[in-house]
C-alpha cells in the first residue's frame, strides 16, 4: 500500500500535467500584443516558459531524481496561470465601466 505522502505527490503529479498543457494552449491562443500591453514578457517568451515547464512536468517524475526540474516546471506553469493569464485576459477585455 502507498504511503500518504507518496499518494499525495502522485495526485499532484497527474493533476499538474493538464494544468501545464492548458497554460501552454492558453498562451498560444492569445494575441501577442496583449502580453506586452499587460507589462509581461513577450508571447514567444511565455510560450517557451509554459512549453518548457510542461515538458519538465512530463519528463521528470518527482520520486525518480528529477524533483528539482519537476518543481521548476510546476512553478513556471503556475506563475503563468496565476499572474500572467488574468492580466492578459483583462487587457484583451478592455476597460470596465
Structure in words:
This protein is mainly alpha-helical. Helices cover about 80% and strands about 0% of the residues. The mean pLDDT is about 90. The chain has helices at about 5-30, 30-35, 45-60, 65-95. The protein has four helices and no strands.
What's the structural blueprint in terms of helices and strands?
Layout: H1 4-29, H2 32-37, H3 43-59, H4 67-93
Short description:
The chain has helices spanning 4-29, 32-37, 43-59, 67-93.
Which key features would you list for this structure?
97 residues, 78% helix, elongated, mainly alpha, single chain
First CA to last CA: what distance?
56 Å
**Radius of gyration over C-alpha positions, nearest whole angstrom:** 15 Å
Summarize the helix and strand pattern as letters: HHHH
Summarize model confidence as the mean pLDDT. 92
- Approximately how much beta-strand content do the residues carry? under 5%
Number of strands: 0
Q: Specify the structural class.
A: mainly alpha
Helix count, per DSSP?
Answer: 4
Proportion of helical residues: over 70%
Largest sheet: none
Low-confidence runs of at least 5 consecutive residues: none
Apparent shape: elongated
* Quaternary structure annotation: single chain
Amino acid at each position: 500500500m502507498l504511503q500518504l505522502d507518496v499518494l499525495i505527490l502522485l495526485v499532484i503529479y497527474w493533476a499538474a500535467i493538464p494544468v501545464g498543457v492548458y497554460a501552454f494552449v492558453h498562451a498560444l491562443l492569445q494575441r501577442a500584443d496583449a502580453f506586452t500591453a499587460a507589462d509581461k514578457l513577450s508571447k514567444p517568451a511565455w510560450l517557451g516558459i509554459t512549453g518548457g515547464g510542461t515538458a519538465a512536468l512530463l519528463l521528470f517524475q518527482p520520486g525518480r531524481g528529477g524533483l528539482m526540474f519537476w518543481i521548476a516546471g510546476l512553478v513556471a506553469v503556475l506563475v503563468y496561470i496565476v499572474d500572467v493569464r488574468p492580466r492578459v485576459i483583462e487587457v484583451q477585455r478592455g476597460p470596465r465601466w
